[in-house]
Amino acid sequence: MQLKIYNSLTGEKEIFKPILDGNVGMYVCGPTVYSNVHLGNVRTFLSFDFIYRSLTHLGYKVRYVRNITDAGHLTDDGDVNNDRFVKQTRLEKLEPMEIVQKYTVDFHKVLEMFNLLPPNIEPTATGHIVEQIELTQKLIERGFAYESNGSVYFDVLEYNRRGLNYGELSKRNIEELFANTRDLDGQGEKKNPQDFALWKKASPAHIMRWNSPWGEGFPGWHLECTAMSTKYLGETFDIHGGGMDLKFPHHECEIAQGKACNDSAPVNYWMHANMLTMNSQRMSKSTGNYILPMQLVTGENDFFEKPFHPAIVRFCFLQAHYRSVLDISNDAMLASEKGFIRLMEAVKVLQSITPNDEKQSGFSFEEWKNKAYDALTDDFNSPVLIAHLFEAVKYIFALKDGKETISKNDLEDLKSTLNALIFDVLGLQTIEENNNEKLDQTLKVLIELRNQARKSKNFELSDQIRDRLLAEGIELKDGRDGTTYVLN
Ligand code: AMP
Ligand code: ZN
Questions:
Q1: Residue of 32, 44, 254, 318 best suited for mutating to test ligand 1, as the one with most atoms within 8 Å of CB
Q2: What is the pTM of this model?
Q3: pLDDT for 304-315, tens place per residue?
Q4: Closest ligand to residue 255's CA
Q5: Contacts with 304 (C-beta within 8 Å, 6 or more apart), sequence order
């Protein structure tokens, strides 16, 4: 079986050849932890979780590195007002590292809710300042970077002058880039507007600052990923992933930094996950067109008519290929829920099937299994894989109705193959409906008792019910239509 991966750099599906036979080094750009991740961010991380799970299932030993950006991600190349962390510290009246901790914890909680596996290494930008300073020094020594007024910039024109090609990933032409550049703050320090910051001088108001050979400052965003990916995966590694929107400038700059430092391309396969849209527009915090994962799961939003279990959200995401745009909608979620329930029902039904070798079956297990694995190894084609799973579902229900037969060996093989594909590779989880129903009934009783206590002005008891539940992570919400609850 040959694994094919679409390489964004070449624009082609290529046969995957790891640097070290049987091993894969994979780096995925992590979140900038200055606010809660939205559902769009989750889609990208989930896409790479599926890819990580698939590689592992196919027998590769994967070292999966996903960083945490906890410093230096400016909204543009400008001053302190564009630093997301510094802005948020003012808004929330917290220390930068409190902001970082708060949203890192939230990020982990959200990903766990959607059953994402943790990466093998999760390095932080602030934990790798020394490496970033060293890389900056190396780039200056090699003539690819220059200091200007306490900041250090990468010299894009010099890079191209040496026969390299800034723009090779995003297929942008450098002349066009120069023509279209806006007048940005800090640009006066640069030789050319496309030069990007490796190190930025910190103004007196900038609270995130470190000592460096160029005075106090902070690292540029692009450099952190070069520092961390090469530290843990080597100067050239197998796979680099991230959302489509990171292709330019972030990944373009990473390629330039890597080549300028080491005379070799840092990455063999660039993989880009496509965007989640809502109302046909890209989900994004800045436009307000977004939904938080928790809002979808609790139903506290104006967009979806009911809450959806995280496993159903995960299933919905995987019903689209990672390179396709996915527009999330109420109808899409309802359809996924229906499909998910049928799939899980089939898994249950399969346990009670008894083998019967006597008659010839119209279903070839071997053929089916090959098709399923062909989809998986064809650039991780999850929607086609899921379509094949539903062929098996149809067969399982036919077995149940006595309309089909299966041999003992095939039955065992079908069970283990389905388990592996559904739970290990797609990462789906069964939903414990009974427990949820029991919990729901219990909470309804408690809400009723609290209402009775309030009616008879026994506020001590009613408050006690609310506070004790809250301490257990169950929040009661009083609204116009009565009291509801949220599981935190
Ligand atoms: P950020 O924290 O802004 O660096 O984003 C974290 C990841 O989420 C990046 O890989 C982005 O490409 C990705 N991302 C941002 N918006 C979306 C979206 N609407 N759909 C899918 N991925 C997204
Ligand atoms: Zn990155």
A1: 44
A2: 0.88
A3: 999 999 999 999
A4: 2
A5: 291, 296, 330, 333
